[in-house]
């Protein structure tokens, strides 16, 4: 039965354990299960005005007492609605760690700084959230969000929260954009290769099957080419790594699409691959058979398919050395940028590492092409001011290109393509470095001071000085008395030998978990307050993951679902995620609401009231909407007739066309009968005349 349900509604097989556990939990209360009934509409209003409202009220109540930060972004849904989403991060004393909740999503008509600002203010005012508790806001770096004069952040700081911290924009976005600068000097040579490989395998089943067999014969595991995403430039590294792994297989496969008169020129390339991989004679014979079979495919290719094959042949054969040089260069350099983004996309507090990681990333990147003596003892602030000109650069031959690229250049030193590649690589380094130098806040006093919260740097004078600046940087957190107490506490904290270990079972603890252990005995109350505020700061684009989920909830088939319903689903989803205790849990929802004893175990009375009252609230809102519509129609002197639905209009149109078609058929039949009778009368008249 379960398998049949999965198949009938196209549910993923991973849902099977959850369905079974849900059935077991529901079966414990047979009386409630027998009475359970819920259609799509009732599920919608119970979710919106019942469960989601219960979660939302808990979040808002904590925001009224805890310091918090926001992550805000805007996107377009699959049914073409502009959606503004707001995530909130704060330290939860009940769960003793930082949690991220979905505060609100709303549909916006005009996306400008004033509209977004007004939406944010409306959320705060409607929920009576104090602006005093707002610590920071993480936004895109576009002018609408972070414009210095009229951006959203500037408006918030000027009109609502003057104490708002400037943590800069999303540094992960900066690194993606820096990667774009790095790739640009190569004229997107590799990016076009990645696009063509992905599309070639995606749209042609027979090509995919042939290529799978080629991989098997070469001793390589076949995987579908990954998609390169233009707006996430670091995906270029991931896709390039997969392409490098299958590069020999692509070469053997696309050899079949070389024009017949040019194939002898590149036979040695394929032969060297087969020899290097020790392919046995039987496999070689089968490869030649496949190549002949694939060559016959050329005649049936579409115009786009032919152009795509020509581009692939150009990159894999005609300009093979250029492709290998750039591809290996990407794989050698881009991991530095990728590791930074992966670190700060983690869903745990990492703000204490942000400054040091940015400094380390920029220093390591510069070391690839800048003279070592220039970088020696260079502080982050001086790196920010460094003039990246030819005077400080290494000679092109001494720059870092990676093992494979260096080996290829050594073999073809005087080749014009190698000379051009070196020049392009130098441009890539400089363009990327200049962009990072401009965008990364390497000279930020705030981020340097926040790095003092790292337990590993405790005990030094520099750490103590930076900790002392925190109450000044966060003026909304401590009063004068607490600020004085904070000064005494940080002296004790900086030299204390009785702090909890930072590692547990050989793994470092999350920063918020470590501090929760430190503050269990309430020995540092002022420091505790400052730390709770700082831990809330966003450092990565978490709101984007909510937009990824939006595509699963709102699609072309759910066009009638409004943003309010999507908002309620997201509130529940994030609320459950914040309550997750074990990674091995099948479902947080089952853990949260399952009762071992359905008769005597307590239930949440407020949640029950909200679920039961959701129907009445839904009907009340519908009635208010009807009244507003009636008032608007009356003011505009519009007839208050019930508006025809899309389905009703379609049926009415179909009925009218059917009626017209039947009437047309009747007229044609009537005309036919009239013509037949007329013909017979003429025939009779003619016979009478003949007899006379």
From TrEMBL:
PANTHER family in the record: BED-TYPE DOMAIN-CONTAINING PROTEIN, HAT FAMILY DIMERISATION DOMAINCONTAINING PROTEIN-RELATED
Descriptive protein name: Uncharacterized protein LOC112041353
Presence of keyword Coiled coil: yes
Keywords annotated in UniProt: Coiled coil
Coiled coil: 622-672
SUPFAM superfamilies: Ribonuclease H-like
InterPro entries given in the database record: RNaseH-like_sf
Keyword Coiled coil: yes
